[in-house]
Amino acid sequence: MIKIRIRNADHEIDIRFPISESELYAKLGEIHAVEGRDAAQSALVTEVYWPEEFSMLKDRFANLDELNYLGKRMESFDTLEYDQFLIGISKLDMRRREIQARKDVPSWRGRTEKH
């Protein structure tokens, strides 16, 4: 299961995935975020409750249809598959943070000091 909080304008709501399509549209309707049945539904994730390994979604827009699909797939995982999946997500997040940290460090290449 995946549990997040999403926001649209001044409205927020918690959603658990997987969720039926009709329940998803009802939840989105509560926060006035329905874009039409044929459009991919996305929303700003303001909180990730579970699994914690999905914390990289916080403060980003996420495709809710894809999260729902992922939630359905995760339900079919056995314990080993589930653990391996979460470890993989954690490693990707650590790699993303390392890359971001390198981007935040000023580059001194190509500069010469003047005496």
Mean pLDDT rating: 86
Number of helices: 3
The chain-level structural class is alpha+beta
**Count of individual beta strands:** 4
Uncertain spans: none
- The side-by-side strand order for the widest beta sheet comes to 2-1-3-4
Helical content band:
40-55%
End-to-end separation: 61 Å
Rounded to an integer in angstroms, the radius of gyration calculated over CA atoms is: 19 Å
Main sheet specs = 4 strands, antiparallel
Overall 3D form: globular
Explain what you see.
It is a single chain. It is built from three helices and four strands, in the order ββαββαα. With 115 residues, it is an alpha+beta fold. The mean pLDDT is 86. The N and C termini lie far apart (61 Å). Strands 2-1-3-4 form a four-stranded antiparallel sheet, with helices on one face. It has helices at residues 21-30, 64-75, 79-104, and strands spanning 2-8, 11-17, 42-50, 60-63. It has a domain at 2-76.
Short description:
The chain has a domain at 2-76. Helices cover 42% and strands 23% of the residues. It has helices spanning 21-30, 64-75, 79-104, and strands at residues 2-8, 11-17, 42-50, 60-63.
Main attributes?
alpha+beta, 3 helices, 115 residues, four-stranded antiparallel sheet, globular, single chain
Layout of helices and strands:
Elements: E1 2-8, E2 11-17, H1 21-30, E3 42-50, E4 60-63, H2 64-75, H3 79-104
Antiparallel strand pairs: 1-2, 1-3, 3-4
